């Protein structure tokens, strides 16, 4: 699998998890919140990174990790922007307030960037531990 493939899987997995979790919570009358969004994000990050390691028999090299993290942040910000615009339109906003929306996206982007960076590293440690266990058998 290439980094491009990893990013494609990440975008699809993240969107799918957001939709499934949003619909499931809505069925139970629970309003989606930032915790649900973050859970979907870290689930998608872990899944695609571990799948990359399993498929390639190795984890991301340093340059690949940098490209993967930056790509995941870009995809996350695009999804957050699309959701923000859609929410504003559903709420009946006739004009988008770009200033506040960009500030919120910046804040969420910084938090999500930290989550992505941390969990890409954690997936690497999990992959290395699993490989060590497998090779010791």
Automatic annotation (TrEMBL):
Signal peptide: none annotated. The keyword Transmembrane applies. The chain crosses the membrane at residues 7-28, 34-52, 73-96, 102-124. InterPro entries: ABZJ_00895-like. Keywords: Membrane, Transmembrane, Transmembrane helix. The keyword Transmembrane applies. This is Transmembrane protein. It comes from Variovorax paradoxus.
